[in-house]
Design goal:
Its EC number is 3.5.1.10. Keywords: Hydrolase, One-carbon metabolism, Purine biosynthesis. InterPro entries: ACT-like_dom_sf (IPR045865), ACT_dom (IPR002912), Formyl-FH4-Hydrolase_C (IPR041729), Formyl_transf_N (IPR002376), Formyl_transf_N_sf (IPR036477), PurU (IPR004810), PurU_ACT (IPR044074). It holds the Pfam family Formyl_trans_N. By secondary structure, the chain is an alpha/beta fold. The protein folds into 2 domains: about 80 residues, ACT domain (Alpha-Beta Plaits, 2-Layer Sandwich); about 200 residues, 3-Layer(aba) Sandwich (Rossmann fold). It is built from 8 helices and 13 strands. The strands form 3 sheets. The protein has a 7-stranded mixed beta sheet, sandwiched between helices. Helix 3 crosses helix 8 and helix 7 packs across helix 8. The chain starts with a strand and ends in a 14-residue tail after the last strand.
Length: about 290
């Protein structure tokens, strides 16, 4: 049986869940997982439902028939085929830990995405990318050629049909125009020391201050640099016995894990923008399982 998911956002009111459940039942669908959240502060309702089409109803028919319910509740909605992998472009500079982690996770089927291209402003990871049978594009960026470079980046994204850009430690600031064009479709990763420790060597700054927790934040990119809606965060504990290099190594690991979890949530349509925040539902049963062990 084909598995789909339905995502819904609308103003809070009664009868939403009943209408959706009735619709799915009448169309021969069985709900296998459901999450919902009613934000009392914004009066917005969010819902994600996984279901099986037991009678073979296809996506187009479901979308067409659901339009009447969506109109009644003024819903923003989308149906997704859970077997389809989201197309992703990864951008990286000279720190390769997140890129290498994502290449491995995709290779074993632990992330429901297809990496359609890797873009870098350096050549460091060309071999690793090409050996994974993924197109590699080196697009140099300077103050003088930034508009042309971003045009070249967007050309790669559009020609590859990418739905998401992942900044896997890409150390160039994107223009406001690119952030707005790809709003809600660019994910970034950085350490969680901001705003305390900015600039170069934040881990060494943290070591000098005796920080006991280090972490990472993954968020959607906006024109406000590292202040976009947060998707995922995590921390690791540090003791007085650790060195600055230990801080860097532990930070590298937590960055890789947090970015992978953020991509997993986005690709499974579990993340909803809610003003400057996000609603992130728990993963459906079985969605973390990988196709291979290594």
């Amino acid at each position: 049986m084909t598995k789909y998911c339905l995502t819904v956002t609308c103003a809070t009111t009664r009868g939403i869940v009943a209408a959706i459940a009735t619709f799915l039942a009448e169309h021969g669908c069985n709900i296998t997982d459901s999450s919902q959240f009613d934000d009392v502060e914004t009066s917005r309702f969010f819902m994600r439902i996984s279901f099986e089409s037991q009678d073979g109803v296809d996506l187009a028919a479901l979308e067409a028939d659901f339009a009447a319910i969506a109109k009644t509740f003024s819903m923003q909605f989308a149906f997704h085929d859970e077997a389809e992998k989201m197309k992703v472009v990864i951008m990286v500079s000279r720190f390769g830990h997140c890129l290498n982690d994502l290449l491995y996770r995709v290779r074993i089927g632990a992330l429901p995405v297809e990496i359609v291209a890797v873009i870098s402003n350096h050549m460091d990871y060309q071999k690793a990318v090409v050996n994974s049978d993924i197109p590699f594009h080196c697009i140099r960026v300077t103050k003088e050629n930034k508009p042309q470079a971003e045009a070249a980046i967007m050309k790669v994204v559009e020609e590859a049909g990418a739905e998401l850009i992942v900044l896997a430690r890409y150390m160039q600031i994107l223009s406001d125009e690119m952030c707005q064009k790809m709003s809600g479709r660019i994910i970034n990763i950085h350490h969680s020391f901001l705003p305390s420790f900015k600039g170069a060597n934040p881990y060494k700054q943290a070591f000098a201050r005796g920080v006991k927790l280090i972490g990472a934040t993954s968020h959607y990119v906006t024109a406000d640099l590292d202040e976009g809606p947060i998707i995922e965060q995590d921390t690791v504990r540090i003791t007085h016995a650790q060195s600055p290099d230990d801080y860097v190594s532990l930070g590298r690991d937590v960055e890789s894990q947090v970015l992978a979890r953020a991509i997993h949530a986005h690709a499974n349509h579990r993340v909803f923008l809610n003003g400057n925040k996000t609603v992130v539902f728990q993963a459906s049963p079985g969605s973390y399982s990988s196709e291979k062990m290594g």
